[in-house]
Amino acid sequence: MRFVAAIEYRGTAYKGWQIQPHARSVQEQVTAALAKIADHGIDVVCAGRTDSGVHASYQIIHFDSLARRSPNNWLRGMNSNLPEDVVCLWVTEVDQEFHARFSAQRRAYRYVIFNNMTRPGILATQVTWERRELNLEQMQLAANHLIGEHDFTSFRTVHCQAKSPVRTVHSLELQRTGAFIYLDIVANAFLHHMVRNIAGALISVGCGEQSVGWVSEVLKARDRAKAGVTAPPHGLYLTSVEYPDDYQLPASPALITFG
């Protein structure tokens, strides 16, 4: 039987989603919890691997098991065995054709910037602090250059293993609520560090270091060295994964907001 589940986690204490030999990972916690319930080894596949320190409010996984457990048994069992910073939101059974990664049509991330003279305390590992005043209008004008299908070589890490750098950004919107700036981006898929590199470039525009047109020039250059710094991981959240309606999966929760 194949099951699909939604996982929420605070990534601060983990070196990313993927299991690593000598580091704590979210996948390790989820796999161990499922194995206890099934009483056999479990392989877990996710919709998108998140980096060290990155959070998720709606990570989608699938797993197979011969154990006779109801979706509710899986849900309750996982949450009894997961650490406090990882939780399962729901579990449902799907057919064998479903694949958490390859069946996904769109993914969405939210990047949260705390734009304030004083650094955050309680939210230190949940938002990215930028003390310089940011011009939201200039950032949005720059972001508009990235919407559509493009070669995003300039906005991926040199260690990215994706075969093609071409991705389609369906929307990229910024909004401000008090001291918090929210960057919401939806695409068919993302490259390694793509969102953080885009955030870093837009911050450079927002603080006046670069012009609006510079982002377009960086995109056309197809050169990672042209894009500037990579924004920190703290403010990044995987917020939604979209699948065909035929699967009838529960809707993603409300977006992460502060203030």
Question: What does this 3D model show about the protein?
Answer:
With 259 residues, the chain is an alpha+beta fold. It folds into 2 domains: 2-103, 2-Layer Sandwich (Alpha-Beta Plaits), CATH 3.30.70; 106-238, Pseudouridine synthase I, catalytic domain, C-terminal subdomain (Alpha-Beta Plaits). The chain has 5 helices and 10 strands; from the N terminus they run E-H-E-E-H-E-E-E-H-E-E-E-H-H-E. It has helices spanning 26-38, 71-81, 136-143, 194-206, 212-221, and strands at 2-9, 44-46, 55-64, 86-94, 106-115, 128-130, 148-151, 166-177, 180-187, 236-242. Strands 1, 2, 3, 4, 5, 6, 7, 8, 9 and 10 form a 10-stranded mixed sheet that branches. A hairpin with an 8-residue loop joins strand 2 (44-46) and strand 3 (55-64). Helix 3 packs across helix 4 and helix 3 (136-143) packs parallel to helix 5 (212-221). The longest helix is centred in the first third of the chain and has 13 residues, at 26-38. The chain is globular and about 60 Å long. 37% of the residues are buried. The model has no long low-confidence stretch (mean pLDDT 96).
